[in-house]
Every structure is written in structure tokens, then in C-alpha cells.
Design a protein that fits this description.
The protein is α+β, with helices and mostly antiparallel strands and 505 residues long. The protein has 3 domains: 232 residues, no CATH class; 68 residues, Helix Hairpins (Orthogonal Bundle), CATH 1.10.287; 166 residues, Heat Shock Protein 90, CATH 3.30.565. It has 9 helices and 16 strands. β5 and β6 form a beta hairpin.
């Protein structure tokens, strides 16, 4: 069969496209913002550069204006004759203004009013402009003014007005701000396009790498989830790391392990239930069939067959009840009536109930409960079920002629009861004793040893009463089963047991 396309593959492609689109948008916005900021900085630098150039050009322009103040005779000794204002302006327009490279030439009088304007529209004539001292070039002033609705940079140099037909006191060179801005934009646009294109290419490559590093683990997770959903519970992902994706991969693997364990427990549970039911059902069918078809001729045989049918029926009913109890406890649907219970008195009561069985096997029962043991917070009926199971197991599995001990002690804020007995030749595994259907001796008869659900039910009941149950071995090799329950806080203490300890041979 061909391998199916993971359900997350299309979503991964969409996610990659979304990442690329989002990243491209971020890059575009970043480039626009960076270009805008760069344009502001470059424009300011261009304005400063333009002002410095005007500051340096105004002095040669002033010298040229001074040279054009009068008509110079061919004879050097002849005095300079002043021209008329019209001749002077014509000479400035023809000889000086064209040499300024497109800049505007202005002359100001002593009141800083414009008396000459090289612009054809002469829109600046008569305007008064402010002059401030330049911080870049000595003896040069700077002007920021608006002529004809257009902003200008300008530099001014003071001259002597004595021989000037227009009585000008300042020579001014002006340049429109828009010209400087256009020059800055033209130079910047090419560089921004080059830098933006290179940045966009690099960004897209990085985005592809990043999106690949994000979508590949997600695609792997989706594929693994599909495999687990299809029943391949051994599937794991190889996503490592301390980042969010690495933690997600580790969490997924832990989840897969938990699912695999749960499925194994379920399979084992069904197999064990089937195995445990097979023997009694076989007996029931066989002996009931023998009773029906009349193959049992004597009364003794019929009585024996009826007895076996009765015992096996009780066994099946007991197993069904235990399974029902276990399911109810694990589902949390079992009701608990927590109250103060005298643990010492309850232990002695349970010992009296198992004493006949212990005597039949030659076992000694000992109980040791200190006088200051407080009552425990527990459900009396469920505590009876737990203690009965513990003592019944101890009496059932302890070697004949040995001693079963039941003690109680304070352990922090809890009261701990311990049931111990020699383990015998088949030492159980303390870590597996509370598993369903566990038996230390697999060959032991289920009729004598139960089906292995008692301890599993007892542990779930103790957990429901907010307690703990575990097992271990002491130094002498005796098996100890511990039951810890919280001490009752606000309940009245029941009467103390008459004896702190008792021994029965």
C-alpha cells in the first residue's frame, strides 16, 4: 500500500506561504521605513552640502559683481566712470548671472531689500530678507527665504556700495531647496533600489530557511500524529532542542509513549480477562453439559458437578464485581463518605475476621498500634475493603507456621499502617504488585489465589481517599505493604483500643 499524504502537508504549505507573505510584508515595510528615514538624513546632508557650496561660491561672485560696477576705459590711467543702473543690470545679466551654474543672483541694499534679481520674473525685488552669520565660512551670511512661493538656500557677502549704481551692500547667491532635494532623491533612489533589492533577496533566502526550519518539524509532527491515529503507536519524532518546537517534539514523544503504554495495558487487560474467564466458563460448560445429558450416573458425581458449577459461578461473579469496582474507582464515579476512623481499632477488627483462616494455616497474628495514634480521614466501608484485602493476601501467601504483623505509626501529617509477612519462595515484585492480574507465582491456581485485582482496586481506593499505598521488603526479607492516610483534623477521637499490642500463637 502506498503511504498516505499527511493531513498536515497542505496546511504546512499554506503555513509556509503565510510565513513568506508575512515576512515579505515585514521586509517591505522595513524597507519603506528605512528608505524614509534614510531620505530624511540624506536630504538634510544634501541641504547642508548645498549651503556650504553657496557659502564658498558667494565670495567669487561678489568679486565679479564688484568688477562690473563701472565701465573700464582702455587707458589704465583713466578714471572709472559709473554706469547707469540699466547698463549695470544688463551687464550683470549678460556677464555674471550665466556664470553661476543656474543659481539665482540677488543684490541687497543696506536695509537688506532686494534691488536686483537675476530671475526673469524678478519676483524678489523689494523683499526684505534676514541674514544670519554662517558657522562654516567666515564673513559670509546665510539666508533661508521664500521667493515667488519657492523656498531657497542663499549665501550673502557684504560689499562697499560706494561705486555701485544700485547702491547694493550685499551680494547673494540663492538656490531652490527643491533642486537640492531632487538631486538628493535622484542619487538616493538608485542606491536605495540597489540596497533594497539586495536586502530583499537576502531576506527571502533567510525567510525560506526559517520557514523550512519551522514547517518541516510541523509536517513531521502531523505525519507522526497520522501514524499514531492509524495504530502505529511506536512512531516517534526526532525534533530536539530547547526552543518551542523542541519542547513540542518532546511533549509529543511523551504523549505517544503514554498512548502506547495505555494501549498495551488495555491489550494485556483484555487478554488477562479472557484468560481468567476461560477456565471457569470451561468448567461451567463441561459440568453443566454433563448434568444435562445424564452422563453422571451416581449421586456423588452429580453433587460434585453441581458444587463445581456453583463455585465457578461465584468465581465469575466475584471477578465481574471486582472489574466493575475497578472501573468505577478509575472513572471517579464511586462515592466516598470521608469521616474520622480509628485505624487501630479497625486493624484489630480485621485481624479477628481473618484469624480462623490464619489458624488453619498455623499462622500467628500480631498487632502493634501506639496509644497516641490519631484517627484517619477515610471512608469506613472502603477502608474495611482495603485492610481486608491486605490481611487476606498476607494470610493466603505467608508460609505456614510464620507470623503476620500489622502495625501503625505516625509519618509526618499522615498515619501509616504496615502489614508484613515472610515472602516465601516466590518473592513478588514490589513495583508490579499493584498491577492488574499480577501474581508472584504464575502457576498458582486462580481459585486459591484470586484473579489479581484486589491490590489494584485497593490502591485506587486509597488514592481516592487522598492516601498512598506501596510495597517493599525489610532487612529480614519480609514483604511489607504500606498504607498511608491523612490524619483526621476536626473529628472527635474514638475510644482507645484496650491493648496496644497483642500476640496470638
Amino acid at each position: 500500500m502506498g503511504r498516505r499524504l499527511p493531513a498536515g502537508a497542505g496546511g504546512g504549505l499554506t503555513l509556509r506561504l503565510r510565513l513568506l507573505a508575512a515576512a515579505a510584508g515585514i521586509v517591505a515595510v522595513s524597507l519603506v521605513l528605512a528608505g524614509a528615514l534614510t531620505w530624511v538624513f540624506v536630504r538634510d546632508l544634501e541641504f547642508q552640502s548645498t549651503q556650504v557650496q553657496l557659502d564658498r561660491q558667494v565670495m567669487p561672485a561678489a568679486a565679479e559683481v564688484k568688477f562690473q560696477e563701472c565701465f573700464v576705459k582702455t587707458r589704465a590711467a583713466a578714471p572709472c566712470r559709473l554706469d547707469s543702473s540699466t547698463d549695470y543690470v544688463d551687464r550683470l545679466n549678460a556677464l555674471v548671472a550665466p556664470t553661476l551654474g543656474g543659481n539665482r543672483l540677488l543684490l541687497l541694499d543696506s536695509q537688506r531689500r532686494v534691488v536686483y534679481d537675476s530671475s526673469p520674473d524678478s519676483s524678489a525685488l523689494g523683499l526684505q530678507v534676514p541674514i544670519v552669520q554662517s558657522t562654516r565660512v567666515a564673513n559670509v551670511g546665510e539666508i533661508r527665504a521664500s521667493f515667488g512661493g519657492q523656498d531657497y538656500f542663499a549665501a550673502a557677502f557684504k560689499i562697499t556700495p560706494g561705486r555701485n549704481p544700485l547702491f547694493a551692500s550685499f551680494v547673494v547667491i540663492a538656490q531652490p531647496q527643491s533642486l537640492a532635494a531632487t538631486a538628493a532623491a535622484g542619487d538616493l533612489a538608485t542606491r536605495l533600489l540597489e540596497a533594497g533589492g539586495a536586502a530583499l533577496i537576502v531576506a527571502m533566502l533567510l525567510i525560506l530557511l526559517v520557514s523550512r526550519s519551522v514547517t518541516m518539524p510541523l509536517t513531521q509532527l502531523a505525519s507522526a500524529a497520522e501514524d499514531i491515529a492509524a495504530g502505529n503507536y511506536a512512531r516517534r519524532v526526532s525534533i530536539k532542542g530547547q526552543d518551542e518546537l523542541g519542547k513540542l517534539g518532546s511533549a509529543f514523544n511523551r504523549m505517544a509513549e503514554a498512548v502506547e503504554r495505555a494501549r498495551k495495558v488495555q491489550r494485556d487487560f483484555l487478554a488477562n480477562v479472557s484468560h481468567e474467564l476461560k477456565t471457569p466458563l470451561t468448567s461451567l460448560i463441561g459440568f453443566s453439559q454433563a448434568l444435562v445429558d445424564g452422563s453422571l450416573l451416581s449421586e456423588v458425581e452429580r453433587t460434585r458437578a453441581a458444587t463445581i458449577v456453583h463455585e465457578e459461578s461465584e468465581r465469575v461473579l466475584r471477578m465481574a464485581q471486582e472489574l466493575l469496582d475497578l472501573a468505577r474507582v478509575e472513572a471517579g464515579s464511586i462515592s466516598m463518605h470521608i469521616t474520622a476512623v480509628d485505624l487501630g481499632g479497625q486493624l484489630q477488627h480485621e485481624l479477628e475476621m481473618v484469624r480462623p483462616r490464619a489458624g488453619a494455616r498455623g499462622l500467628a497474628l500480631r498487632v502493634n498500634v501506639p496509644d497516641d495514634i490519631p484517627p484517619v480521614a477515610a471512608d469506613p466501608e472502603r477502608l474495611h475493603q482495603v485492610l481486608d484485602n491486605l490481611l487476606d493476601n498476607a494470610v493466603k501467601y505467608a508460609p505456614e507456621g510464620t507470623t503476620v504483623n500489622a502495625t501503625a505509626r505516625l509519618s509526618g501529617g499522615a498515619v501509616e499502617a504496615i502489614v508484613s509477612n515472610p515472602a516465601g519462595p516466590h518473592r513478588p515484585d514490589p513495583d508490579r504488585m499493584f498491577d492488574r492480574f499480577y501474581r508472584a507465582d504464575p502457576s498458582r491456581s486462580a481459585v486459591a489465589g484470586g484473579v489479581g485485582l484486589g491490590l489494584a482496586i485497593s490502591r485506587e481506593l486509597v488514592l481516592a481517599m487522598k492516601g498512598r499505598m506501596w510495597a517493599d521488603f525489610d532487612e529480614a526479607g519480609n514483604l511489607r505493604v504500606h498504607l498511608a492516610l491523612p490524619a483526621a483534623r476536626e473529628a472527635e477521637k474514638k475510644p482507645e483500643p484496650e491493648a496496644a499490642s497483642a500476640a496470638v500463637a
